Amino acid sequence: MNREHPEDPQRQQLRERLEAILIRTGKAASWHDEAGRLRELVNHDGYVPVHTRLAREDLDFLAGARDDLLTFAELGLRLLDLHQPRDAGGITSDSAHPILRCRSCMWRWPCPTFRAMSESFSTARDTSLSESL
Hints:
133 residues
């Protein structure tokens, strides 16, 4: 007999927050291309005088973007602290490359959580961001 467990309220609340961020982000316009042009307009005080039309969705996104990004960065760092490799202690014929398991979930390294994070954060935008720093 397979009976479904009721959803954990904290998990449900977190899912709703993440989905709301995803929806709000999806509705906002990307500033990726515009940022390069705006960078050229920095005045002697270090600011860009911007005169533009922003949609309501863009303002909603911009209002929470800093807090959302800080929260996601903290989440990523905490997940990396939890999911890291450790020696599984098994017998192997290659002592230079021991069998590794995740310290937290005990899956073989790299664990599904680390792979999902690595795939999500390894995009072409990361290289353009690091070049601008």
